[in-house]
Amino acid sequence: MSFQTAPQTSSVRSMMQRRPADPGRIEKAKDPKRALKGLLRYLGPFKAGMAQVFFFVLIYTLLGLVGPYLMGVAIDRFISNKQVAGLATIALWMLAIYLLNNLFQAIAAWLMSDISQRALKQMRKDLFTHLQSLPIAFFDRNPAGELMSRLTNDIDAVNQAVSQNVTSLIASVLTMAGILVAMFILDRWLALASLLVVPIMFWFTQFVARYTRKGFRELQKHLGEMNAVIEESISGQKVIKAFRRNDSVVETFRQRNQAVFKAGVYANSYALLLMPLTNVLGNFFVIVLAGLGGWLALRNLVSVGIIATFISYGQNFTNPLRQLANLYNSIQAALAGAERVFEVIDTPAELDDGPQAVTLNAVHGDVRFENVNFAYRPGVPVLKDISLEAKPGEIFALVGPTGAGKTTIINLLTRFYEINGGRISIDGRDIRDIYKADLRRELGLVLQDTYLFSDTVMENIRFGRLDATDEEVFEAAKMADADHFIWQLPHGYDTLLSERANNLSQGQRQLLSISRAILANPSILILDEATSSVDTRTEARIQKALLRLMAGRTSFVIAHRLSTIRDANHVLVINNGEIIEQGTHQELLDKKGFYHHLYLSQFKGQAI
Amino acid sequence: MIKKILSFVKPYWKRATLALILLTSLVFMDLSIPRLIQRIIDQGINKHNQSVVLQTAAIMIGISILSTVIAVGNSVLSVQVGESVARDLRDTLFLKIQKYAYGNLDQQQTGQLMVRLTSDSSAVQRLVQISLRIGTRAPLLIIGSLILMFNTSPSLALTMLPLLAVTSIVIVFFIIKMEPLFRSVQQKLDRLNTVLQENIAGARLVKAFVRADFEGERFETANESYTDHSVRVMRFMSSMSPALTVFVNIGMVIVIWAGGLQSIHGNLSIGQIVAFTNYLLTTMTPLTMMTQLSQTWANGLVSAKRVNEILETVPEVQDAPDAASLPEPTPGRVVFENVNFHYNGNGDEAVLEGIDLVAEPGETVAILGATGSGKSTLINLVPRFYDTSSGRVLIDGVDVRKIKEDSLLAHIGIVAQETILFSGTIRDNIRYGRPDATDEQVIAAAKAAQAHDFILVMPQGYESHVEARGANLSGGQKQRIAIARALLLDPRILILDDSTSSVDVETETRIQQALDQQMHQHTSFVVAQRISTVLNADKIIVIDKGRIAAQGTHRELMQTSPIYQEIYESQLGNGFHAEQEPLVVEAGSVAK
Asked: Residue B492 in contact with residue B411, Cβ under 8 Å?
């Protein structure tokens, strides 16, 4: 059973849990060949190791075939003829062969564990490295939670198949082939009779698999619907309670749950048919051999020892057949998973640095936008013909209603997105000709959406500049007015922040984010709604610190609160992707235009 | 824990028992096959009796067919019981979570609750199902074939006993060692996934600070450590199967050697030897099955324990036995009497201390204060989302703890700080608290919340689809829909918790005006950051570190409260006074 769990919890799913191949994920890859090729590419570096594995598997399969044969020989030649010495010799041989068989089996498995895990490690690494190089637009398109749960599930499926099934697949196929050959050498008629079982077994498996697959597809659909209800109602539990919708939510859930139940009974009933049916076929096999063998033995066409050998082979033959049925599902799931992992790996990376990219040094901070046009989606322009010039050391405020395009301007300056037309330059150099890493290093960003890592407060601030000393971190936190609350945390600067930093308020998170930017000490400072969740008194204090920080640097400030903006040298009013007014705070007020209107609305009813 | 699981199986005990009976009869049939083969060899082949061979073969075919039917019956029954248990478990859990109070919800992460309802429930289901399918089969098969071995040849069977004992010890060793190994891999995996998750969710930040290499190293460390551990576990697991088959194989050799010797001395037939090897295989296979079973059992029990924790949680807020409904109509006078509040019982630092407050019917009470000062906590006490640690909250003279939850919440409309919308149409979202509202009422509420205009611009207007968590709407749009949702209730008491923070100032002003027109129909609590939001309130409460630092009207507070003056200054800037027109504001000091 596979549930799509919430993003935070996907990690709870184990990659190592030995479940039978998860039948809920019987999903075919669109292009299994390509997925398989991709997977094999990861086994490529281990060619020598794989050859060894194959060698050991081959040997232990052959040894496995010799054992039952020797048993037959022991019965026919020595027990029946009462030869103790011969029996002793053959028993010793059997022992030796069995021990070697198991030893080689273990060696093959040991080798394969290492190979499969190293190969998967490389795959995870490639995936991660590539994820880092993907453009921000990719992350916009794929919500973090969804991407995360998809990737962990997919890697999980590949992991299960590769680590558990490669050797058993090889061994199963080899064993079956070997047994068939051995059977034909020993006795033609019994071998032919055994062969009859194979098509019946295949037909059974196919029959069951068809219904199972249909059943699980249906189950998966219902599970998805139920999980959507669970996810939504749990995350919205407080609202549900406040608006007294518990009963109707429970009712909806019950219906979905019942549908899952029905689909589950149907799918699993078919899936579990496979085991009794293959068991029974195994028994049939033995019975046919015993019956036919007995009949042949009566006519002296076959010896008792050979019947014993065949029965033993029979058991060894049906086991791999049974396994193959399971393997089929698990391999399908793995290929489908691999395909999606490769899809991510094959997504084009961020545009590379230009061919004449240069290193930035000693940035003055003269930032210019010249007739910049931009659209996230073709046909829906977000910025239209934007031109602006920020001189070194200036504070540049971007003002306008939600959705006007303020954050987009920042996103273009950092080259999170590529412009569609026009030119953006720093100190006269087109930013497309600057190494991205250099460019971003000069830009200190405090984003609207603060993000903290699950690490200590200290390390979270140090993220801004990795080689900063503890004292420098304290200093930065003090400047951002964060020092005070940090000391109130259970372990001060060593307090571990949880994944989503639930233990901090939004305002406190913003203060840490500001500390980080202060520590980074960038040439150009960008504050995107950096203090929106901080109360105004605290904000006023940070404002002073920020003013000190901004001194001598070009700064871009986006804010809803006009009080934040008053200190700017230059205010740019943006509406619908166009610059509609610009000037100083006072000039714009005097103009009595859009800005004046915005300003008034904030302080309406002032003169009481 | 097993008791708890059994209590969920109980309603289906008939089917479960039947499944076990079928399973037991299956074991007898499995065991009869080697015995019948022995008969073919000894009495058929060796005595040259063709009819015995054919007859026995026919019996075996009959048994096989019968056992198939039984096995299918057992499978179907165990699936039904397993799925039923899972369904009931999910229903019970879901219902329980619905009864959770805010305090209970705070202690549980959303993700964890999800896992209880999904993965954990199905782990329990697997446990039930596998127990009914092979749980009793393995021990029965072992005991049965042991008995038959003794029956066939006591002396030969005795030689098998030490082997069985060693095998059992080895299996126990594997089972004991497995758990901690798996746990350590799980921890490494969690770490790996955390780094992955952080880099996906924090992609923008990693790029902005050019930390790809640093993060790459972090990932590599986690990846390496996970790989090391999983190689170790895989090796351990993969040596288990050869380690066990080696015993089966040694057993085979012993049977051939010791059995062969006995046969040479005429004490054992060849058919018995063949039967014996079959019994040996039948005994050993279930033993290896046990290792898999133990995994499922271990997982299932851990899950059952976690599920049980949820089931045993007592909702922090429950209707008192003597709780009554509020009278209709109720005026909506809210009084706080010396209220103290600590989040975790009385252990933690107080969040609220000595709060005394009266909101007259129709009054607007604004609450100001620094981040973390206790504003949200204060208003959460009115709808009894939390219970006070001491002191009382009264609505029209009745302690909220004596009011039925349903009746209490019916009179309160809330717009929370964090906006949560549900998937469905915009219309459905607005009338979430009043599903029977007419379209006119929905539109009126949307208009008041300044949402009507942007809704009309959307492709399908009020029928436009809202994705889960309102992912396709901007923060400001979501907040306005949430306001409309609360206004539609036409509640006696309206609570707005910083509910216009993502709305631009101009829109906020319009919402404010619309609310002002309506305000006197309800008693309102407004938590806000911006002074402009609170100017017209009948009463402004300034909260500082959990205490009421000042209360009064804007004019009064400007005279008396230094904190309020400071907040005011911080928003309106230096040298700006209430008496002045905004236009004479000096440009702020320009830093250079």
From this structure: yes
CB contact under 8 A, B46 and A283: no
Across the interface, whether the CB atoms of B530 and A536 are under 8 A apart is answered: yes
* Spatial separation of the C-alpha atoms in residues B551 and A446, rounded to whole Å: 35
Do the chains contact at B83 and A550, CB–CB below 8 Å? no
ipTM over 0.90: no
Q: Is A561 on the interface with B (CB under 8 A)?
A: yes
Give chain B positions within 8 Å (CB) of A589.
583, 585
- Cβ separation A466–B214 shorter than 8 A: yes
Residues A179 and A247 in one domain: no
Work out the pLDDT band at A408, boundaries 50, 70, 90: confident
- Would the pLDDT of A29 be above 70? no
Q: What is the pLDDT of residue B336?
A: 95
Asked if residue A441 and residue A295 are part of one domain, the reply reads no
From chain B, pick out residues whose CB is under 8 angstroms from the CB of A152.
193, 196
Q: Is A319 a domain residue? A: no
B156 φ/ψ sector (left φ>0, alpha ψ -120 to 50, else beta): alpha
Instruction: Say what the pLDDT of residue A4 is.
Output: 29
Q: Chain B 415-434, CB below 8 Å of chain A: which residues?
A: 416, 420, 422-423, 432-433
Report chain A residues whose CB lies below 8 A from the CB of B80.
Answer: 265, 269
All residues of chain B having their beta carbon less than 8 Å from the beta carbon of residue A242 are 383, 385, 409, 412, 414, 416, 433
Q: Is the pLDDT of residue A13 over 70?
A: no
Q: Does A40 touch chain B (CB under 8 A)?
A: no
pTM, 2 dp:
0.75
Q: Within a domain: residue A313?
A: no
- A179 and A194 housed in the same domain: no
Q: Is A298 on the interface with B (CB under 8 A)?
A: yes
pLDDT tens by residue, B328-369 = 888 889 999 999 988 765 555 678 899 999 999 989 999 988
Mean pLDDT, rounded, for A574-591 = 87
If asked whether residues A62 and A110 sit together in one domain, one would say yes
- Could you tell me if A38 and A82 lie in one domain? yes
Q: What is the DSSP letter of B329?
A: S
Which residue range forms the structural domain that includes residue A585? 367-602
A316: in domain = no
Looking at the DSSP assignment, which residues form a beta bridge with residue A133? none
Q: What size, in residues, is chain B?
A: 592
Domains, chain B, with CATH or none: 1-138+301-316 (1.20.1560.10), 319-411+491-574 (3.40.50.300), 419-489 (3.40.50.300)
| Domain termination site, one of A170, A185, A200 | A185
- Which of the residue ranges A78-92, A97-111, A260-274, A340-354 would you say has the lowest mean pLDDT? A340-354
Residue A447 has pLDDT above 80, yes or no: no
> Of A185, A217, A233, at which residue does a domain stop?
A185
Does B325 touch chain A if contact means CB atoms closer than 8 Å? Answer: no
Report the share of chain B in percent with pLDDT over 70.
Answer: 92
In which element (H, E) is residue B14 found?
helix B13-39
Would you call A566 an interface residue with chain B, using a CB distance cutoff of 8 Å?
yes
Chain A: residue whose CA lies nearest to B56: A291
In sequence order, the β-bridge partners of residue A388 are A369
Confidence of residue B589 (pLDDT cuts 50, 70, 90): very low
List the single residue in B54, B471, B582 with the smallest CB-CB distance to A600.
Answer: B582
A99 contacts chain B (CB < 8 A) = yes
pLDDT of residue A3: 29
Q: Are residues A148 and A205 in the same domain?
A: no
A503 touches chain B (CB under 8 A): no
CB–CB of B270/B263 below 8 Å? Answer: yes
Chain A: closest CA distance from residue B358 (Å): 23
Q: Which residue has the higher pLDDT, A200 or A571?
A: A571
Quote the CA–CA distance of B56 and A446 in Å, as a whole number. 84
Mean pLDDT of A562-569: 74
Residue B166's contacts (CB-CB under 8 Å, 6 or more residues apart) are B247
Q: Quick check: A48 contacting B, CB < 8 Å?
A: no
Q: Rounded to whole angstroms, how far apart are CA atoms B583 and B589?
A: 16
Residues A205 and A87 in one domain: no
- For residue A535, give the amino acid letter: D
Q: Residue B320 carries which side chain, given as an amino acid letter? A: A
Residue A56 included in any domain: yes
Q: Is the four-CA dihedral A279, A283, A285, A286 of positive or negative sign? A: positive
Query: What's residue B439's pLDDT?
Result: 93
